[in-house]
Amino acid sequence: MNAAYLHIALVHIPVVLTPVSVILLAIAHLRSSLAVARVALGILIAASLVALCAFFLGEGAEEVVEHLPGILESAIEDHEESASLSLGFTIAAGLLSLMSWIAISRGSALERALLAITFMVATASSASLAYTAHLGGIIRHPEIVSSPDQES
Asked: Does residue 23 belong to any structural domain of this protein?
């Protein structure tokens, strides 16, 4: 097991869990369920911690693959830049989730506002993570991108 393997294994977790948490936050809002909201917030906190680990494994993953045939440095750089933005959104969503969890536990008047902000940031995180995952796929799977001369 090397850094590339661990990076690829871990990076899928926040890519899947973050949109799942967005869906659960929407359900929590529609049903006025703080129990569902807590589940969603817990998932977001976990996703942000795993995203942090995956991000820091990215440098080691780059070292493993950058010299392989067919790997473009530009594809790695694009993925890396997008990953930085995604990490920012995901960590922000995780921190907001923690704040929301605390607000719910204390019955704070800020509970609804924090949940709404968490929902918006988690939605942005989901979109950013999806795009970053797409760019990561291009590094090793150039067939997922069609070139203009291949289109009919």
From this structure: yes
